[in-house]
Amino acid sequence: MSTLRRLPELLVPALLVLGTTLLGLSVSSYLQAYFLDTLIKVAIVVALYVFIGNSGVLSFGHVSFVALGAWTAGVLTVPADQKGAIMPGLAHFLLHTNVGNVASLAVAAAVGAVAAFAVGLPLMRLSGLAAGIATFAVLEITNNLLTYDQSIGPGENAFSSVPQTTGMWQAAIGALLCVAVAFVYRSSRFGRMLRATREDPAAAAATGISIYRQRLLAFVISGGLAGFAGGMYVHLLPLQAAGLHLDLTFITLAMLIVGGSGSLLGAVAGALAVSGLYSFFSAATNGVDVLGWNLTVPQGTAEIVLGVLMAFVLIVRPAGLTGGRELSLPRRDVRVEAEP
Amino acid sequence: MTLAFLNLSWPVFANGLEFGGIYALMAVGIGLVFGVLRLVNFAYGQLIMAGGFALAYGSQWNLPNWLSILFSFGVVLVLSVAMDRLVFRPLRTHSPAVMLVATFAVAFVLQNIAQLAFGTFGKSAGALASLDAPWDFGGVEIKKIAVIAVATAAVCLVLLQLLLTRTSLGLHMRAASMDFRTAQLLGVRANRVILGAVVISALFAAISAVFLSVEVIQVTSTFGLSDTIFVLAGVVLGGLNRPIPATLGGFSIGFASGILGGTLPANQSQYLPTFLFAAVIVVLLVRPNGLFTRAGGGVVERV
What we know:
The complex is a heterodimer. By secondary structure, chain A is mainly α.
């Protein structure tokens, strides 16, 4: 039965997330911050995977949806009596609207999906380099607006006073939810149709698949997941617009590409592996003990290591560490060649 | 005295021309490499940053100006060629999108190395600061740097045009940017052409770094970054593949941001990037093939 054989495609990434969670619960609260951040990154990278992995089209724009989700969930959950003080320019209807944690995440996901739909409507006609530049333009526009428009959020300032509701379990459930949605999508006929367009656009179009519509659907789902992840993110840290820009885009893309953008396993494994590496070097700026050696590295080492690793993977193994494969039971090779 | 019909003063106009000139040079630098390699170099800004730091060291060591400028040219040139050898050459056969991601990685690495080595506050490159002072043109005061930048940019662009049209290297480069494979079959040496483009583009980056260091004396790891992002937009608007449209695109972005930055109040000019990148998206949608791919390259559109 093919469903049974494909079950590991869901279970392995899910178990990886679960394992990370359990590990995170067993360490000190200082180290736990890294695990929380990792789980959020998993959610973002899985959102990226839904579009980039299945369509083979590059997007630099997804952090826009993360940022929009963060802004939405943040504005909706800052306590009403503090809103005016933190965000003096806030639009009137936002000033008096407050919802709970879960509802704010749902709205964040909806805002991400709607924004992705609005952006995707014109942009999904593009591919290759043009798509890369256009989505980059989307990122710049979103960042510019969020940084200066104080009627929708704190502007340049950090999102302070947001209740920190993203704990280990909430982050884990969120990441698992993203993994599950991505799995359901990739197994659905829509996911298959989109991957067909990735492998051979001409043949896919000839069998009646609308490349444009399939890409748009994936873009909307992935925008929704990104918005959701952004909502969880702002419930973890006081984010600011500058932190939801080029660096986060680069780090999450690096995770996807290092892991292998062609598979869900690649996205999750890449996010975990790169996050682990990144966290290690970040922690090492304050000194860490490695097998009895005290290792202290200067600030910025993590970024440099990550950048070099990404360039290296692109050159040596462009399909990523997993080679774009899912882990499934034998007799069904789902090898795919991906354009990261 | 003002340009009354535009409601502009001459210094603001000169400022527009200055940034137009600098951005035009950067645009050509990005466009040349794109022409032969199909590579949009996000890391171009970090070449300019490296040039800025070299100038800062020149000031610190009290080198004479010509020597610190020469030093900065050398640093940018070496870095540019190294970038090509280490990263872009192994990726030459990959898709433009993969190369774009790779240049993103290179930019990220270089920026963080600079941050690590020179700290958040960077270094001061004050050697040429005197050029920020104005010259008096019959009652109109124009900054020296504006005059020099515009004149240098014009000379460089004319020289480049001569190189492209009157020398065999230029002919080869134009042939390669039209159709690399066919050019190779006809005996154009790939590595020579690419090296030519990389070197010229590095020279233009170094010149831009020198001019920008007069405007922004404190060189940090983000020196030239926002300028490069603007220029990338301008190059896309103009047309990446052809030197003259790319130049015009770069020039108009620089000119517009110089003028608007000088005339609009801050609460309007801060949204300049939004309008700029919205224009980029519109151009990409209206003429995706014309700007980015050689004829027949747009697979989806062809179906």
